[in-house]
């Protein structure tokens, strides 16, 4: 399996990742099309590909990644 085919997403998967990205960027005042926004998108894609397959799961994992996890 090639790298590109491993990274391919279905439309519904794109919607999950993009929804999480959009919400995260709104809450953190990061523009989606900025370098920081692209970095966030890359991290979220990785999180999705490692089993965080819903918007809430991605957002929760992002809190952990950024050391913002609520206890």
List the SSEs and their pairings:
Layout: H1 3-7, H2 11-28, H3 35-49, H4 55-65
Helix pairs in contact: 2-3, 2-4, 3-4
Key phrases:
71 residues, mainly alpha, 0% strand, globular
Number of strands: 0
| Count of discrete alpha- or pi-helical segments spanning 4 or more residues | 4
Shape: globular
Uncertain residue segments: none
Gyration radius (Cα, Å) is 12 Å
Mean pLDDT: 87
Structural class: mainly alpha
* Strand fraction: under 5%
Helix proportion range: 55-70%
Largest sheet: none
Instruction: Give the end-to-end Cα distance, rounded to a whole number of Å.
Output: 40 Å
Element-level helix/strand string:
HHHH
Describe the structure.
- With 71 residues, this protein is mostly helical.
- It has a domain at 33-71.
- The chain contains 4 helices and no strands.
- The chain has helices at residues 3-7, 11-28, 35-49, 55-65.
- The longest helix has 18 residues, at 11-28.
- It is globular.
- The model has no long low-confidence stretch (mean pLDDT 87).
